[in-house]
């Protein structure tokens, strides 16, 4: 089932934020419990003389919902505990709370130089989970990169710097000049994670395209691509890197040129040459870049079709995804996708089905080959086929029954996606109202949210669905941010019908977590527009 999150992102846009969620069980207790003990009891145990009990209590608090924020000060104090096990557990639990525990940043910053290796590691991870709120720790984390003998801690520090964002750019630029190829690679990777805000690092990254280490050159190319169109000045350097002796560097350079977009048009001749490379991975990367830069489907298609039968299923999967992006107006796209419906690899088949669904009505020739897949043994294939057929053929009668069966699947992510699929059908799926109401009582919040959103799409009535979605949007105690985000997105999709939830969304604008604030802002904009 590891494939499912990617499939669902393609098949059900409304479900994409749910792909990493797990069960959420609402609690009506005045405080959270874990292993039969309340938060108060576990917090009291943080002061026990026995360090093993203190460490266990700190870990237990990390297993509770975010009402455990009341213990932040007690946990922060434990970062000075004489026992390393206690410091380690306190750092891990503070990190699990993310930006809510931002006031622990100074103490965690001290811990990145703790005498204990595991405490240093957990402190780095925790600071990363604070994101931009840990900006003051950037210098200390950058200093850790000067100790490349501690591989795991150094990697955790670099990852944290990438999550902190723009405030970490100076420290990462400095470490691009490290004598250690490992540190230079990690620094470039972290700048890539920062994305467009890493633009000040562009000159240093461009220099690293000629580094003595292939790993560094590849990471530098990827980081330049992550900066996006603003990295146009690096085009010539990336064109030169297309001739690198190391294949992954050539591939990442082509990908970076594609992410720069039309501003990298001078790279098109080199990319066309790469499109004829004997290496399939390079042909695919070059084709994708040609498409992103020039929207030249005729130039992009031959390299893709030549890789459609590659021995590597990862390559074939990439081809199927890109063919869906190019669309049906060039002869051969739909035919290649239909041919892949019989591929031996489930990833390739799933991606081909999803791409046909994205093409929609213009993929009409695929409807007949897709129908037998409604009875496939793999639930994700049945789900992909039902969703694609609806987009292509718009026949409610042939997709409702398979989606109803999938709504009862043993996998929660299939149930959630099936609910979303029923919602896409809309009013013609009115017969599914009762099954959706049952799904609104599922033990998994993701399924409940998807079912509520679908019921509104099917019935057009908000009386039943709005309370569920608004309650999920308001739940600032849950650690499962993806489910909460999905509820907020669904409210935005409801438009004017969600106006009673506006006060909740306005409160979400002040939430500790950026993903919730951003979703609330977008939802409020959508509601105001309708």
Question: How would you characterize this protein structure?
Answer:
This protein is mainly α. Among the domains are: 34-163, Leucine-rich Repeat Variant (Alpha Horseshoe), CATH 1.25.10; 229-307, Alpha Horseshoe (Leucine-rich Repeat Variant), CATH 1.25.10; 312-394, Leucine-rich Repeat Variant, CATH 1.25.10.10. 62% of the residues lie in helices and 1% in strands. The chain contains 31 helices and 2 strands. It has a two-stranded antiparallel ribbon. The longest helix has 16 residues, at 514-529. The radius of gyration is 25 Å and the shape is flat.
Q: Enumerate the strands of the largest sheet in spatial order, edge to edge or round the barrel.
A: 1-2
Distance between termini?
Answer: 38 Å
According to CATH, the homologous superfamily of the domain at 34-163 is Leucine-rich Repeat Variant
Estimate what percentage of residues fall within beta strands.
Answer: under 5%
Could you tell me the number of beta strands? Answer: 2
**Proper CATH architecture of the domain at 34-163:** Alpha Horseshoe
Overall 3D form: flat
